[in-house]
Amino acid sequence: MKFKFLKTLFTCVILLVASSSHAGLIKTDYLNSGDGLLISDSAQGLNWLSLTLTDGMTYNEATTSFSDFRIATQTEVENMFFTLFPSLDGTFSRGVNNPSYQSSDPTIMIQGIEFGELFGLTLDIPSWGRTRGNYISDNGEYLSVNSILVSDVTSNDSRRLFLNYAGSCNNILAQNCAWNGHSEFGVFMVENTTQAPEPSTLAIFALGMIGLASRRFKKQS
Fold first, then answer.
1. How confident is the model at residue 106, as a pLDDT?
2. Which of 112, 115, 93 is nearest to 103 (CA)?
3. Using CA atoms, how far apart are residues 89 and 31, in angstroms rounded to an integer?
4. Edge-to-edge strand ranges of the sheet holding 38-41
């Protein structure tokens, strides 16, 4: 009986740690019930705004319109990107500007669909399926993620992804720019929430619980 209890407790802890370390992004409500305009990122302790809310806005317009949010950092965007595109972790070089990826790999297509469904399409041509968002690099540059879901009428790419893409917006006035002068980009805006416990913290907590349970059983025996 004692062994069964400890085994059950240990199994639950392992599942809890595993689920925390693979936490994903979940669409939630922002303005109205069922609108799906907020994306919960439990792994980073963030809420992301849908790009459809900031589509066509400059950086200044986005921060003024959503004062409770801030522009996402490069590290936050990279972590989000590799959560949604895990098969590209290692293919893209983190922190490097202008890396791109082209493929008709069905796995990438599925991951791209999830990206578009979460953050929304920022170009009103459904057949292109573009999701584009701007953010600020760790050293202050103005960058973007660009995802083309289906075939592009100009380049015939089946899947085209850009991470940390640096545009031609003048750095001095970049905060007043819409990306490259185009209106089909949104701005990645986030707010901090309660940070999810790290797997290592959960593991320490779990070991402590198991230790206390063991001591209790020893006293009873």
1. 81
2. 112
3. 33
4. 25-28, 38-41, 46-49, 189-192, 70-71
* Length reported for the chain: 221
> Which ranges in the chain belong to alpha helices (H)?
2-21, 59-65, 74-84, 106-119, 199-220
Contact 160, 101 (CB under 8 A): yes
The span from the first CA to the last CA of the chain, in angstroms, equals: 12
All residue ranges of the chain with pLDDT < 70 are 1-23, 123-129, 149-158, 167-183, 195-221
Burial class (CB in 10 A: 0-12, 13-18, 19+), 157: middle
Q: What is the DSSP letter of 197?
A: P
Pairing of strands 100-102, 38-41: unpaired
Angle between helical axes of 2-21 and 199-220 (0-180°, round to 10): 170
187, β-bridge pairs: 134
> Which tens digit of pLDDT belongs to each residue from 152-173?
445 545 578 999 988 666 554 4
